[in-house]
Amino acid sequence: MRYQGWLTWVTLGLAVAFVPMAVDSKPAPIQFGSQINQLVERVDPNFNKTTQQTQQRAISTNETPIESIVQNRQLSRTYYYHFDTNVSASAKAVFENAVAVYNQTGIVKLVPGTGTDRQNSITFFVYSKQMPSSGGTTMIESGHGGPQIIQQTGWNAYTANHARAGLNVYYPAAAIRKSVAIHELGHALGLDHSRYRNSVMYPVDQGNTALSAGDINALKTIYGTGAK
C-alpha cells in the first residue's frame, strides 16, 4: 500500500503515549485512538469506510481467539482438576467459582481429580511475583495460565491437555478474584486474549464473571457443543 511506510513512522511516534496493563503475563493489545485513522484518511479517503466495514463484521461475530497450540486439536471435553498444596482456601474458592462458570455452559466438564496421562487435566496453583516499578507506576500481573498439549501418535495414539492456571498472590486484592480465575482458566482451556471488553478474556481485568457469546463460541469450536 502506498502509505504503508509513512503509517509505520506515525504509529511508532504515537505508541509511546500508551501503556497497556495486562491481567496476566501475556501482553495487552495497545489501543490507538482516532488520530491515526484521521491521518491515514487524508492519504486514502476510502480507508475509514473500509475500516468501519471490517469492524462491523468483527463485532457481529465477536469471536474470542483460540490459543494456537490448541487449534485443530481433538480434545475431550472432560478435565480433571486439582490444587497445588500451597493454594489457600480463598484462592481455592475463586478457582471453584471459575470451574462452576465453565461447567454451566455444558460444553466442558471439569471434575475434581488427577486423571491419567491420557486425560485432560488442570493444575490450579499460586505464585508470588513482585512486579518492577517504572516511573512510579507498577504494571500488575494478576496471574497466568495456559494449555500444554501432550500428543502420542501411531499405535494407541491420544491427545491430552495438561493445563495450568495460577494467581499471583503477591497482589491478593488484584489476583484472588473470580474474574481473574475465570480468565486464567479460560487460557488453560484454550482461549486466547480477546479485544472485546465484555469478554472474560480481555487482557485487562474488567470484573467480568459471565462468559460472552464470543467466549462460548470459541469453546464450542474447540470442544463441540457439549453433546458428546
Automatic annotation (TrEMBL):
Domain (Peptidase metallopeptidase): residue spans on this chain: 71-225
Q: Which InterPro entries match?
A: MetalloPept_cat_dom_sf (IPR024079), Pept_M10_metallopeptidase (IPR001818), Peptidase_Metallo (IPR006026)
Among CDD domains, the record links this protein to: ZnMc_MMP_like (cd04268)
Provide a Gene Ontology MF annotation, just one. Answer: metalloendopeptidase activity
Q: Does the keyword Glycosyltransferase apply?
A: no
An example of a Gene Ontology BP annotation on this entry?
A: proteolysis
Give the signal peptide range.
none
Alphabetical UniProt keywords: Hydrolase, Metal-binding, Metalloprotease, Protease, Zinc
Q: Does the keyword Zinc apply?
A: yes
Q: Which domain of life, per UniProt?
A: Bacteria
Record-level GO cellular component terms: extracellular matrix
One Pfam family hit: Peptidase_M10
Annotated protein name in UniProt: Zn-dependent protease
Which species is the source of this protein?
A: Secundilactobacillus mixtipabuli
